[in-house]
Amino acid sequence: MTELEQVIGYTFKKPELLREALTHSSYTNGKNLKSNERLEFLGDSVLGITVAEYLFENLSLPEGRLTKIRAGLVCEDALYSFAKKIDLGRYIMLGKGEEHTGGRDRRSILADAFEALIAAIYLDGGIQKARKFILSFIPKPDKLSSGVYMPGDYKTLLQEIIQQNPEESVEYKIIEESGQEHEKVFTAEVLLNGQVIGTGVGRSKKQAEQSAAKEAVGLMGYETD
User: Fold this and answer.
1) Would residue 44 show up in a list of annotated catalytic residues for this protein?
2) Planar angle of CA 49, 149, 67, nearest 5 degrees
3) Where residue 175 sits, what CATH number does that domain have?
């Protein structure tokens, strides 16, 4: 716990809030413990208002564009990307089943735990501490206003890049599946006008496609996390 506090730059006055934020429901079976689900609910709201306020204050864009940018910043892919930056999966308390099936890198688990962590900071230190934590992950206004940067969502970024040339088209193909049913690994290719421009691997088809898009975006010279 102390190590994570150092990573995030915040020390809890009530360490039990941090423990709750890191407790997945699978870990509570047969134990007198709270899972992080209620904190996740609260964190979602704190995240939403913080991001909305930041965009309103820093971007002079129409409502529709602000809505699209906000959606990209609070979606599961973005939260997963933020959680990976602080290696959050390493600290989550999981049941044996989730542990053995790759739960520490499951997008939904990491995204939910990130929202729960936001709520824990909010309850322990107030809105300004939570806001400081959230904004440490949000790109600068110039990147957001460019219309092509969404944390963790490389498929959207790649599509935005390709749309600059209307005659070009992108498609994704799953070229391989391996592993047992409960722990499959997928390999995807992304093709531009029929030519492979990126390959990626993931525990779901969506994750593999995002990984392939990330490789393609990086090869094009754009920033990736």
Assistant:
1) yes
2) 35
3) 3.30.160.20
194's tokens: 């029929």
Q: Which of 85, 114, 123, 213 is nearest to 159 (CA)?
A: 213
Q: Which of the residues 37, 44, 76, 105 is marked catalytic?
A: 44
pTM over 0.85: no
Cα angle 34-38-152, degrees, rounded to a multiple of 5 = 115
Residue 224 lies in a domain: no
Compute the distance between CA of residue 121 and CA of residue 128 in angstroms, rounded to an integer: 10
Q: Which of 115, 153, 189, 209 is catalytic?
A: 115
pLDDT > 60? residue 147: no
Q: What is the DSSP string of 179-214?
A: S-GGG-EEEEEEEETTEEEEEEEESSHHHHHHHHHH
Q: Per-residue pLDDT averaged across 72-99, rounded? A: 90
Residue 114: which domain range? 2-148
* Confidence grade of residue 146 (pLDDT, cut at 50, 70, 90): low
115 labelled catalytic: yes
